Amino acid sequence: MRILAALASVFGFGLLQAACSAPSGSAPPGSAPSNSASSVATRPAPAWLDKQLSPDQRAELLVSALNQQDKLSLVTGYFGVQQAWNHYNFKEARPQSAGYVPGVSRLGFTAQWQADAGSGVATQREAPPALERTLLPSGILTASTWDPPLAERGGAMIGNEARATGFNVMLAGGVNLMREPGNGRNFEYAGEDPLLAGTMTGALVRGIQSNHIVATIKHFALNDQETGRSWVNVLIDEAAARMSDLLAFQIAIEQGDPGSIMCSYNLVNGVYSCQNDWLLNQVLKRDWGFKGYVMTDWGAQHDTVLNANHGLDQETGVAETGKYIWLDKLSTAISQKQVPQARLDDMVRRIARTLIAKGAVDDPVQLAPIDFAAHARVTQADAEQGIVLLKNQAVLPLTVKNKRIALIGGHADVGVLTGGGSAQVYAPGGNAVPGLGPKGWPGPVVYARSSPLTALRDELPDSTITWQSGADLGAAASAASAADVAIVFVTQWTAESVDFPLTLPDEQDQLVAAVARANKRTVVVLETGGPVLMPWLDRVAGVVEAWYPGSQGGPAIARVLSGAVNPSGHLPVSFPRSADQLPRAQIVGDGSPHDAQFDVHYDEGAAVGYRWYAKKGLTPLFPFGHGLSYTTFAQSNLSAHLDGGELKVSFAVRNTGKRVGQSVAQIYVSAEAGGWEAPQRLGAFGKVELAPGATEQLTLTVDPRLLANYEPKRQAFRIAPGSYRVSLAPSAAPAARDAGQTVTVTLPERVIAAK
Ligand code: BGC
Prior knowledge:
Elements: H1 2-11, H2 13-21, H3 37-42, H4 55-65, H5 68-74, E1 76-80, E2 97-101, E3 112-115, H6 139-144, H7 148-164, E4 169-170, H8 194-209, E5 214-220, E6 232-235, H9 238-242, H10 245-256, E7 260-263, E8 267-268, E9 271-272, H11 277-287, E10 293-296, H12 304-309, E11 315-318, H13 326-335, H14 341-358, H15 372-386, E12 388-392, E13 404-408, E14 416-417, E15 447-448, H16 452-459, E16 464-468, H17 473-481, E17 485-492, H18 508-518, E18 522-528, E19 542-545, H19 553-562, E20 598-601, H20 610-616, E21 633-643, E22 646-655, E23 661-671, E24 681-690, E25 695-702, E26 709-711, E27 716-719, E28 722-729, H21 734-739, E29 741-747, E30 750-753
Parallel strand pairs: 1-11, 3-4, 4-5, 5-7, 6-8, 6-20, 7-10, 13-16, 13-17, 17-18, 18-19
Antiparallel strand pairs: 1-2, 2-3, 8-9, 12-19, 14-15, 21-22, 22-25, 23-24, 23-28, 26-27, 27-30, 28-29
Helix pairs in contact: 1-2, 4-14, 5-13, 7-8, 7-15, 8-10, 15-19, 16-19, 17-18
């Protein structure tokens, strides 16, 4: 009750009262007093609330009961922040939240309270303690687990905190593919491969929505860089888009069934995403049969008529008067017959149907205490499975022989780094390193209060662990030379609305080099939002990629280093050796004037990430799929056969080492006749835990679209008849594939409709 009281003081007494007194199924908290829970309960329930009817029927009944003003109101969303620049400042909006859409209390239809994002319930701007929430690791870390059930548990956890703090629409998950390793939002996404990213994001969405709230997949589509994000025009041909970025969305939608989707800021082939008929009406709603609603990214609306007619269902993030506001502009456009009334009805029907189908109407959000202890276990499990051991020359795990350990840099004495922007979650205890980074948006830099140093001391009570901040290279080097092993933490803060160089900032490369010179047994722990260059790689004995590991990042890192956890994370992205290995050595548009539209040509087409490296015969620094363990695995008996038209791949995995460990099996497919954008694609994957000596037989199904090319004329994927290689490999590196096993299978022609 103490937490409830604290929350109530932030949310206002009204919410607590409503939350504590409103029986399930009555008017949602936040309804206007004249339409309070009790007044709704005493009137005959409106027909649309009849739970015996289907969501479609109920939405239809609601639409027929709404007047035009109600309808316009349901498709217009406001910024939820309490800031001077927010003209509206609705008192019913949740404190410092992303969005608010008023409900129709007269008919008992819920308001929509929207919060970012995929790592937890975010807060816009610095948060008071009552707005602190459990922070999951970044999306790219969760993708590194290659473990969909784990992603689903994480989603369920953040959905629970969303509900408990009054949100029924989460603006998560992000599934934009990593085309630009410098994209400031890579930390929010799930990597570079459509199957992995789509599957992991779909699982997160399932978890969120298991709380009877809506999840919003984003940013649709091809919003793969932040530089000029509102005026970059992405040029890509349809087949390439359908086989890469759009396929990631398609898979995530199939697997997660998100209630809504957020169209992005950028233009695609000359048309803003939020008024792009091809993307919204044809691909999403016609081909994929999406029954949910499309909301804009905040401020991504441009032209009322084009937005409405080309598939947008809800405008969001209104903060200023007189600008883009559907409430007025759509009304005028309808009366002038530029937008059909049926279109507005369809928007409202989609929104209502979604909130009903997901349970947000029948099970209104209720303020409740957060079980921070239980949620800490969820976020720590995620971090422990997604931290990637990149290099290990017999230095890890730290053994009892490591009596003297020098820990250096990265603020590892107090916390772990988090990503910035709208996804910023303030973890319990607030910012461990205040005063860093931009004072305004998208800052500040926030460190979650979870100390790797303290956690490592707890893990290794018999070792002496010294601490150096890394600010003084000489002091860092002396500490390293006096130790049996040196562990250097390096960080790169990344954030929404900016892109970043691939080089570590603040001369941290020099720090690593100085420490490595002083001690050969140097381990580098990276906390980064995406790939970075490692000029010191050959000089260090170990490298651990901890990404942004969330509010239990300290213990998770410590337990990987000590060996209490056997690492099982694998890269969901390739790490380049240098920027000139990339399709674009520099992010296009850097330095271009505000608002001046520019083109970026995705000439690599669907050859994103490892596919690009394979096509060009390039060897990255670390390949997609790479990740080491403290045990060893042997994979054998690979076979592939058609079963009911589906390609099934079977094999055995054995733990040949001495420790329990988890193996990630990766199936790569390639067409012997060529004709693909690249020599290979990830076709399936599976993760299995094995005791020492144990063997497990696995059978995975290859998604047929990954054996096909998209043919725009047919509006379908088509598998060409012929011979295909199926490889079981530890990563996407060609050498890894050659060292693995390969079988060949003959496939008949198959056409898979775009749907
Ligand atoms: C971001 C979205 C986010 C929205 C609301 C935008 O700046 O691009 O991802 O959901 O803000 O905070």
